[in-house]
Each structure stands twice: as C-alpha cells, then as structure tokens.
C-alpha cells in the first residue's frame, strides 16, 4: 500500500467551471479517508483525479513517492469501485473477481489462491459459481470490491459504492467495508454525500464545499468542534440547531441572549472560546446539538439554563423522541447554512427564510421517551451550556481563540 498526497490540487473544466480549488492534504499509508459534502462539492472530481480519469489542472498528486499527474490510469496502481457494480453479467463471481488478474497474465495457480482468499475475506466462498443476476445488491457490491481488492493495488478508491442499496443493506455494508479495510490495511479514499456514512467509516473525514476543503479531522473532533457554520450544519443528524444570539455581560460573566432568554456561558466554556469576549454587545450564531436539549420537566441538573418554546411536532423513535420546537429568536440564515438546507430539502430552506422574516427558529431536541411534550403545548428545554457552539455571522467561522 501507499500514501496519497494532494498538493495545491485544482480542477478547471474547459468551460471555466472550477470543480476543485487548492486541495492540500495527506492520506497516510493504510488510512481510510472519507470525502464528504453536498452534490457538486468536488469530492468525486478529486477522486477521479487520483484515478487518472480526470486531468489535473493545477498542483500535484503523489501516490507514495511518485507524482502521478502525467501517468495513465493503468500505470497508477489504483483500483476503483463505482456506484454501479459494473460486473460482467455473463461471467461467474469467480471469473468477475479473477478478470483483472487474467488481464495481467497472472499464473493460474497464483490466481486461484488469490481469488479464493479474497472470497473468504468477503464472505463469497459459497457464491463463486453464481452469475451476478443471482446475487443480492449487497453480494454484487462485495463482488465489485473483490475484483478491486484481488489486484492488491496501492490505493482503493470508492465512489459512493452503497448508493444503490436499500437502507438496511447500506448499514450492513458500511460495517463490512470498514471491517475489510482494517483487515487488509488498505489505503482507501471513499466518497459519499451521506454524513452518517462518513462519520461511521472514516479514520478521518474531509468536508468539501464548492471544491474547497472546509475541515479535515477524525469524526468525533469534526462533530464536537466544527470549524465553521457549513461544517456545523452538514455534520450531524438531526442537524445542529442554530439561532442568532447577543453576547452580553452579566455579573462578571458572559451570557448568550436569545430574544430575551438568557443562557449563562460557563467560565470554562468562555475560557475555551476566549474570542467571545470580543463579541460583547454583538450578535453571533449560537449552536446547540439536539442531544444537548432535554425536557426541563425531566432534567436532573437543578435550575440550569432554559429555553422556552412551543412544540410543533414530535417523532417517536422508540429509544427517544425527536421534538420540534419553535423558539423566539432569528434563525441563522447565511449562505453556508442555506446551501446545506437546499441540498437536504428545498422546503426546509424556504422555511428558514420565512422564519427569518418572523424572527422565530425551529429547534429539534432529543427528548427522553418519558417526555409529555405534545404539539401545540409550551415546553421548557434544559440546555447543556457546557456544549454550546459559537460562530461569527460575517465570516461563518467558529469562535475559539
């Protein structure tokens, strides 16, 4: 296996469309890196440039110590798994997996050993005589992976390989791909628009927007400390609640004021976000994850900080309830947030715009199933103020130092 290095890589199409800008990052040998972002963010273009299927307009891509800009795809020692399985329908599973080795004129005995070993890893041993039409979607995807893996390439490239599977199979195959990658120690770059897929599979996740790298980090760090409003909006399901808040000083400490409702900012949080002091008397974007809101009637942490609102709808999920609550206060309606909303649901984006006019924001809270919150009723939410997020509304950047 080998590392992959992007050095100021860019892609500009003949019509002037810029798909990727100044992409610089390193994928370590054996690492599982996920590119994630909304449609049209440049993630597949970046992958195809590694494969040699797209010409690199600017910068360099190196696989191991070798710059590959001028190399043909077959010379790069990479294997790619696409959205479509691209299996040969007239060939058996065995022959589909063996096809690349036959093209390389691998000795028959070596070929057989390799195919059977990969089939064992992928759980395809009992299916080697079957044709693709006799397989389920998950089995076909494993055959497509086997055809790539059997070549033992330096790098695996996967372009939304699970997008054609139903929800249950996607969950199953996420775990399978992660297991196989770790068992093989294979350097892998994986592209998806599904942030849940990205968070559950990658050693690190690179978030792209309009061809530009927004943040690259391990999944938990990405979730806990998003670099900007775009990442905060995109990573997390349900998404982070974002509302405009004024930063004010009370009794020597800072508070975030949401349309007159005040959330005291703990001293430890203010110390970790020293830059907040510069925003005193100004309006910022305040972020609260759904799991950091709870029905105050069930809260066990004393008085604490509270937000009041009106319940719009509730969703019973068995282990928890998602409660949608309208709170007085203007939503954060920046271009970054709207881009994520439009990509997810145009109606949501229009709702954000209308809420801006009405100065009200829809929150989502992960409530305990014991909560009695019901549509149309008033509810008070206990807020984990030690887990608040703060953003500059002009730049969209998170406020830290």
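-> sequence recovered:
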């Amino acid at each position: 296996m080998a590392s992959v290095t992007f050095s100021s890589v860019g892609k500009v199409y003949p019509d002037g469309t810029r798909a990727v800008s100044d992409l610089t990052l390193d994928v370590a040998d054996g690492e599982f890196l996920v590119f994630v972002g909304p449609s049209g963010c440049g993630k597949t273009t970046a992958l195809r440039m590694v494969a040699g299927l797209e010409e690199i307009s600017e910068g360099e891509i190196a696989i191991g110590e070798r710059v590959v800009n001028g190399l043909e795809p077959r010379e790069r020692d990479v294997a790619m798994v696409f959205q479509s399985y691209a299996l040969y329908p007239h060939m058996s599973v065995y022959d589909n997996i063996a096809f690349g080795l036959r093209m390389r004129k691998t000795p028959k005995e070596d070929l057989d050993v390799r195919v059977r070993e990969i089939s064992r890893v992928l759980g395809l041993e009992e299916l080697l005589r079957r044709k693709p039409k006799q397989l389920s979607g998950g089995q076909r995807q494993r055959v497509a992976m086997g055809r790539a893996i059997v070549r033992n390439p330096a790098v695996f490239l996967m372009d939304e390989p699970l997008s054609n599977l139903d929800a249950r199979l996607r969950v199953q195959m996420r775990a399978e791909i992660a297991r196989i990658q770790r068992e093989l120690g294979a350097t892998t770059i994986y592209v998806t628009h599904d942030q849940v897929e990205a968070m559950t599979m990658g050693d690190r996740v690179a978030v792209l927007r309009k061809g530009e790298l927004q943040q690259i980090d391990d999944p938990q760090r990405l979730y806990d400390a998003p670099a900007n409003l775009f990442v905060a909006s995109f990573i997390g399901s349900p998404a982070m609640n974002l509302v405009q808040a004024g930063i004010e000083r009370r009794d020597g400490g800072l508070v975030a004021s949401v349309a007159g409702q005040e959330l005291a900012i703990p001293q430890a949080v203010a110390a970790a976000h020293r830059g907040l002091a510069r925003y005193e008397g100004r309006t910022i974007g305040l972020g609260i994850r759904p799991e950091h809101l709870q029905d105050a009637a069930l809260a066990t942490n004393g008085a604490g900080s509270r937000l009041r609102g009106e319940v719009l709808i509730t969703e019973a999920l068995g282990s928890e309830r998602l409660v949608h609550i309208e709170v007085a206060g203007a939503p954060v309606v920046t271009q970054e947030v709207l881009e994520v909303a439009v990509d997810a649901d145009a109606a949501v984006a229009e709702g954000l715009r209308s809420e801006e006019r009405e100065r009200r924001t829809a929150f989502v809270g992960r409530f305990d199933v014991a909560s009695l919150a019901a549509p149309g009723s008033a509810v008070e939410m206990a807020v984990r103020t030690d887990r608040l997020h703060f953003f500059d509304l002009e730049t969209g950047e998170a406020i830290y130092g």
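The chain has eleven helices and 20 strands.
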